[in-house]
Task: structure prediction
Amino acid sequence: QAEDPVASYCEAYEQQRRKKKKKGKTSADANAAGNKDEDDSDSEPGEEDDNDDDDEEGNDRRRKPIEPLPPVDHSCIQYESVRTDFYRPHREIERLGSEEVEALRRDMRIT
Result:
């Protein structure tokens, strides 16, 4: 049977978390003295740490006002033509006479 990749990831994550907790207890004295090991952070490898200098300096981009985009003069831009006639009636519908079409529209309540 093939191993579930999600389950194996979760298991590895939990093992790593347990190791960090055990290591955190033994290195608590070192952290109190101002030394911080790289393995003590709660973020995963490859994850960015949200506690950057941006928050300390007040440069949080979520609080920055949104600046409007400059207006665009579309009359100066040459756009390619766009096909707008997408409806292609089925062959059987094309063969119907006008009376048959009216009868179908009444039956299906199409105006």
